[in-house]
Design goal:
heterodimer, A: alpha/beta, 2 domains, 7-stranded mixed sheet, B: CPE0013-like fold, 10 strands
Chain lengths: 324, 120
């Protein structure tokens, strides 16, 4: 069995910050595993500005924010980056099996930081009834399609949920010539940043329907329309308030769920409601020597705070290795 | 006449109160930093936005290259600028910060690569 001092799973903002901070705190043997072909994680598809105002005192786009860290990580001796590397097994003794092109590797780590990020909540998880036509996408998936693949998902879109990803995608689709016909939010206020309501919706005259929900998605092969209803303070449908919006695309932006299957596989305690590790403090898990940081630990609203807390995770792992 | 405005310079999103006579700003209140004052005056006079989008690549390791305008551009030119950007195809490797198109649309603004891309 090959031993490594510190293995970090995930090369997004959390994993990169943790690696650099652990290295600065004296860890000399760090392996950073990233399943994609580049470092950066979700930042690579977040091409809008708004990153780095706290950490770099400059407003950067997601790829620019990622690039600054990725360069440092690649240039730092002591941090080995393994791309296209996917962890398939993780145990409480910190044994890790991962696939990389052409090989399966089995290693044992003295400490591990899981920086595996989030997945999106889906249509099924909020139970929007109706038919099952094509044209319903999680907003973050649509973001990857538009920004990284150059595929425009439709011509007329309705967005469910006013979280930041939904708001940012409303603007992005509008700029790409999609008619964005409305954002439907069941709550009285947006869960996203107020600046995004202004610069993503108001700038493009996109209506935001508070206290409304989608009653049904209609369409045979492709989405044809959605039925929308107004709800009261108890989320009960208000009779007579139903109206229809014709559209061929529905983007669902209803939150994120930490991706913690590896932690679960190792037998760590997980909070079922939030899918986050049960621990006394940020970055810790119930297994000694196993840390979780970034969106895998809790869902953050700003990448800058992910960086700040993940740097702490790197230091915590370094401290653990010293005292062990 | 006073009117409300939300500052979009940073995630704090300060609620501003603008007193203006047409496009002439008399006073700005509610901002927690100097950027809010500057934003409000600019927004009343001529709203500006930084545009970010992706352009097609050919023969590079990713299908799209994220780009941004080097400076904010007039808000009313966003769609015209998007149309012009759609005609660009990048086929040489680029470094983050490299200029993809200079003095874009005669606005004195460059189009800048937001990441590095190598050959496929």
């Amino acid at each position: 069995m090959k031993y490594r001092d510190l293995v970090i799973v995930g090369g997004g903002p959390a994993g990169m910050a943790a690696a650099l901070a652990a290295r600065a705190a004296g860890v000399e043997d760090i392996l950073l595993l990233e399943r994609d072909q580049h470092l950066g994680g979700i930042l690579n598809q977040c091409i809008h500005p708004g990153f780095g105002l706290h950490h770099f005192k400059a407003e950067l786009t997601g790829p620019e924010y990622a690039d600054r860290f990725a360069r440092l990580v690649m240039e730092t001796p002591g941090i080995e980056v393994s791309l296209r590397s996917f962890v398939i097994k993780f145990t409480k003794d910190r044994d890790i099996s991962y696939l990389r092109p052409g090989a399966m590797e089995e290693i044992r780590a003295r400490a591990v930081i899981l920086a595996t990020g989030c997945r999106e909540r889906t249509r099924e998880m909020i139970q929007i009834p109706g038919e099952r036509p094509a044209g319903v996408y999680p907003a973050g998936l649509a973001q990857k399609m538009v920004n990284m693949e150059g595929w425009i998902p439709g011509k007329e879109a309705v967005i469910v949920g006013s979280g930041d990803i939904g708001l940012i995608m409303a603007r992005r689709m509008a700029l790409e010539g999609v008619k964005v016909k409305g954002v439907i939010e069941i709550q009285k206020t947006s869960r996203g940043l107020v600046r995004n309501v202004v610069q993503c919706l108001e700038d493009f005259s996109i209506p935001l329907y508070f206290q409304h929900r989608i009653l049904k998605i209609h369409g045979a092969a492709r989405v044809e329309k959605v039925e929308v209803v107004r709800v009261d303070d108890k989320f009960t449908d208000i009779p007579g308030s139903v109206f229809e919006i014709a559209c061929d695309t529905v983007l669902v932006s209803v939150g994120l769920i930490p991706e913690n299957e590896l932690l679960e596989m190792a037998g760590a305690e997980i909070d079922r409601a939030t899918n986050t590790p049960v621990a006394p403090a940020v970055n810790l898990t119930s297994i000694p020597g196993v840390f979780a940081c970034g969106n895998a630990c809790k869902v953050y609203d700003l990448a800058d705070w992910v960086t700040r807390d993940s740097e702490l995770a790197g230091k915590m792992a370094a401290q653990y290795l010293k005292t062990r | 006449m006073k009117r409300p405005m939300t500052c979009i310079e940073c995630p704090q999103g300060c609620r501003l109160e603008i007193e203006a006579d047409g496009a002439r700003v008399i006073s700005v209140t509610g901002h927690k930093c100097p950027r809010g004052d500057k934003y409000a005056r600019q927004e009343v006079e001529a709203p500006m936005r930084t545009l970010t989008t992706s352009v097609l690549t050919r023969g590079l390791e990713l299908k799209m290259l994220p780009v941004r305008t080097s400076k904010p551009i007039p808000k009313e030119k966003l769609f015209e600028t998007m149309a012009a950007i759609k005609r660009i195809v990048v086929s040489s490797p680029v470094k983050a910060g490299a200029v993809v198109a200079t003095d874009f649309l005669g606005m004195g603004v460059d189009l800048v690569a937001c990441r590095s891309l190598n050959k496929a």
